Amino acid sequence: MSETAAASRKSRRQGGAWRKVLPHLVLSLGAVFMVVPFLLELVTSVKTFAESTHTPPSLIPHPFEWGNYAAVFDSLPFSHQLANTILMTAGRTAGQVLFCSMAGYAFACLRFRGSGLLFGLFLSVLMVPSQLFLIPNYQIMQWLGLLNSLPALVLPGMFSAFGTFLMRQFFLQLPTELGEAARIDGANPFQIYWRIMLPLSGPGMLALAILTAIWSWNDLLWPLVVNTDPEKMPVSAGLAALQGEHLTNYPVLMAGALLASLPMIALFVFFQRRILEGIAFTGLKG
Amino acid sequence: MKRMGHPPRAPGKVSPYPRQSTLHRKDARWALLFVAPTALGLAVFCIWPTFQTFYYSFTTWGPFGGHDWSGLDNYRELFTDPELRNSLISTAIFTIVTLLSVPIGMVVAVLLNRPGMRGLGLYRTIYFLPTVTLPASIAIMWKMLYNGDYGAINWALGLIHIHGTSWLANPDTAIYAVAVVSVWGSIGYNMVLFIAGMQVIPRTLYEAAELDGAGRVAQFRHITIPLLSPTIFFVTVITIIGALQAFDLVYMMIGKSNPALAKSETVVFLFFHKAFLDSQGGYAAAIAFLLLTIILVFTSIQFRMQKRWVHYE
Amino acid sequence: MSEPSRRARTHLTRSRRTLLGLTAVLALLLAGCTSGSGSSNSTAGASVTLSYSVWEQPQFATMQKLAAQFHAENPNITVNVQLTPWEQYWTKLQTSVTGGSAPDVFWMNIPNFKLYAKGGALLPISDQVAKDNVDMSNYVSAIADAYKWDNKIYALPKDVDAVGLWYNKKLFTDAGVKFPDASWTWADLTAAAQKLTDSSKGIYGIAANAADQLNYYNTILQAGGHIISPDGKSSGYDSPEAIKGLQFWVDLINKYHASPTLAQMTDTAPLDMFTSGKVAMLYGGSWSVLSMVNIPYAKENVDVAPMPKGEQVGGVSNGLGNAIYAKTKHPIEAWQFVKFLGSKEAADILAATGAVIPAYKGTTDAWVKATPEFHLQTFVDELAFTSAYPSSVSSAAWSDFALKEFAAAWSGQESVEDAAKHVADEMNAALAKENQ
């Protein structure tokens, strides 16, 4: 071991306690910044309507109106809509993970004429406000006879330029030698994709799945426009109905919002452990 | 897609494989297969509407369809519109502030990527919470925090004798206040991307560096950043594209008779207003295309510049 | 809806989608998108389902009740009430009209009416009204007239609203100020507001907000001005009377310091300030009854009086109407339903809920009696002199611009005259475009 290495290791040991505490300090401060709005949401969700409108706002509700959570189920077909949200999210996520990993692989690993132009066209889709697609997509759904249905919620969301871009970046991070070696051995691109690239891109697909799920979970405008029956709406649309022209029942809305985010939080808690335990990828030997 | 040549990790190693071009002759057919589903879906749901809108930007589009050709009128109006000018400034401010979420997200991801750290799962979940919350409730909660008289922020500032203003109703601070909420909401999002990106970096590299005497910061600078650069690039590009299209948060947090509205409208806010509230669909289309051009320019610059700092394998 | 039929429907669309998917893409890329929904003529007596779109969640149950009542009287017609949140209602309606499949019957309001009427989205019902002898004089005339375009009737009025002076009895008593009454003038209000302001307790006399329907539309009319000329071609904002009507509010904030600042009223809703006892007076709508009654402090301590007069009495009333989609597949049944919604029977049901004032004259007693804590007759009496909410085809454009400009005036960034002039210019430009 070199002298400088030994010396620097020694100095690091001396600052050891500080180095252990600093990350926690930074993270905790950040966590407070992250969590304060939630505490507010939680507190508001158990206030009575009258208390929620009171100014100055009270820190501790008096009384605790737990009935707001029950009121969520009275105000909208919550469980039904939650099921719709889950189905919609699952459909979109599955579609995007499959199709975007395929397209991302093509852009990253396959050489073909016009790939740059096509990729640029894909990216340009991200650069226009999504409200632009509202009316044309509505007309397409109408043409297909899919207005006011669950497929209408899923279909447009299965194709994503964002997801393609993401997967492309992940595939580009993988060493080319792997693909090249397989090519030499006579594998075709599909075999390379299926046997080599896909398993290695686990983290990327997982990230895409999480982000697509997040986006889909709270998607509001498209479901509201294309579907009309409350039973065919996702929960985000149902909760939006609580915001009236003149009156909004904030506590019930907060309670509903918290209930609606629980499944996603649970899902994340489960998946982030998988990342932590490294099941999603195989080690790459340099 | 051109991939830049990068010096192999182990110095002196030469690729024993034949030139790449001979292996890729049949790629086009496969590529078609792989790209087809997404390409078709995007063509139908996104690209076709975009071309349609481009056409409509040269018309006066009625509220319920039906249009008259108006040539460059909409674009001419664009360049003399003071509202548009203000919206460009607001959008620029919003974007610059939102970019903070990239380094913050990265630091958080790095700190939360070390195995064996206590409270990892809890921290990650807390940082992730904002991304799964209903946007409407985010707006409501932050409005309460920003309240000039009773908000927690001004209360905290009062403890150190700073008199806070009404953050959302003050024309000078409103757009910054909304941008901070955007940063708050994006940190968890970026954290997920960065953690995923870091999984591809082999642990062995860090171990080797540790043995060679490199400290944490040095490891970060020489291993993490270069190998994470494709993800950093992606996150930066996506963050900028998203921020330039800021709408939802501004719309929910700044109301119609908020004195700060004129200086906080973003470009997409204006677009939405013109398209759906004022029934000026043609003009709105022109706004959308101006925005597309701006974003295209910025994104192309970033793609050009990636050759300088992004390392692909 | 039953499980089997839902599954069957999904199965059908899934296979249909698979079959048509690729063809649809190709066809769309080649041709434009034309919505070809074949219209089927409904024969009287055949079973028909109508869709009825509304936005107010508190009234949803009442609308369903009306739908059920109608179905009981017309067993072959089922009405499916659909709730769309207020924020997205107009976006969705515009999208569905453009797409060609809007709901059969839907709520319409005055600010949006002319746009939809001119755009051909609504079915004219003048002939049906004449044929079925619907007496339009049964409705509040301002609202009935508001739903006419090009001399044709397009909607039957559903409800009407008015703005009144809500006040806090407790704060008035504590400060020794007499309660407002019909004799009050602007001077009385201003004087009282100053007396009621107690900055040591953080209490203001009045919340002088920069809202249009709630605040300055009323005072402009009370000052003898107007917002839009009777022929609908020019703006009235730059007249001295209108400026007086606007200045009234600005002075309350900046001259008499009897009101919170606009920044404060942006952070905290004036209604919340009022129901928390932080302001003693508030110009509030008849629709705020629900809020007042559900907040114990307000229920006990507030009441409402007519708006004080300026040069004259005045005020605006908005009112919802039930309109029929121009391309509905069931025009006959839709008219039956709209006629029912415009009947005295429906108005009575609506009034009893206490939610809104029905537009059908003579049914308001039930509404007044539904909430005896407040002198709700005030609002009904005001209907004698209120005029319809000012609107034009491009209302949304200039009214939002006005809100933005006046926010600057209210917060002292701009003088009222300048703001009024800017708004008038913008509005005149928009009106000129409409009328060319």
How is this structure best described in words?
The complex is a heterotrimer of chains A (286), B (313) and C (436). Chain A has 286 residues and is mainly alpha-helical. Chain A contains 15 helices and no strands. Chain A folds into 2 domains: 65 residues, no CATH class; 166 residues, MetI-like fold. With 313 residues, chain B is an all-alpha fold. Chain B has a single domain, classed as Orthogonal Bundle (MetI-like fold), CATH 1.10.3720.10. Chain B contains 14 helices and 2 strands, in the order H-H-E-E-H-H-H-H-H-H-H-H-H-H-H-H. In chain B, strands 1-2 form a two-stranded antiparallel ribbon. The longest helix of chain B is centred in the N-terminal third of the chain and has 30 residues. Chain C has 2 domains: 168 residues, D-Maltodextrin-Binding Protein, domain 2, CATH 3.40.190; 190 residues, D-Maltodextrin-Binding Protein, domain 2 (3-Layer(aba) Sandwich). In chain C, 50% of the residues lie in helices and 14% in strands. The longest helix of chain C is centred in the N-terminal third of the chain and has 28 residues. Chain C starts with a helix and ends with a helix. The chains are: A mainly alpha (286), B mainly alpha (313), C alpha/beta (436). The interface between A and B is large, with 125 and 114 residues.
Name the strands of the widest sheet of chain C in spatial order: 2-1-3-13-6
Number of strands of chain C: 15
| Tally of separate helices of chain B | 14
Structural category of chain B: mainly alpha
Output the CATH class name of chain B: Mainly Alpha
Shape of chain C: globular
Largest sheet of chain C: 5 strands, mixed
Quaternary state reads: heterotrimer
- Terminal residue distance of chain B: 14 Å
Order of helices and strands of chain B: HHEEHHHHHHHHHHHH
Cα(first) to Cα(last) distance of chain C is 50 Å
Q: Residue-averaged pLDDT of chain B, rounded?
A: 87
What structural class do the secondary elements of chain C suggest?
alpha/beta
Shape of chain B: flat
Helix run count of chain C = 20
Nearest-integer average pLDDT of chain C:
89
The CATH architecture of chain B comes to Orthogonal Bundle
Low-confidence stretches of chain B are 1-13, 15-19
Estimated share of beta-strand residues of chain B:
under 5%
CATH fold-level assignment of the largest domain in chain C = D-Maltodextrin-Binding Protein, domain 2
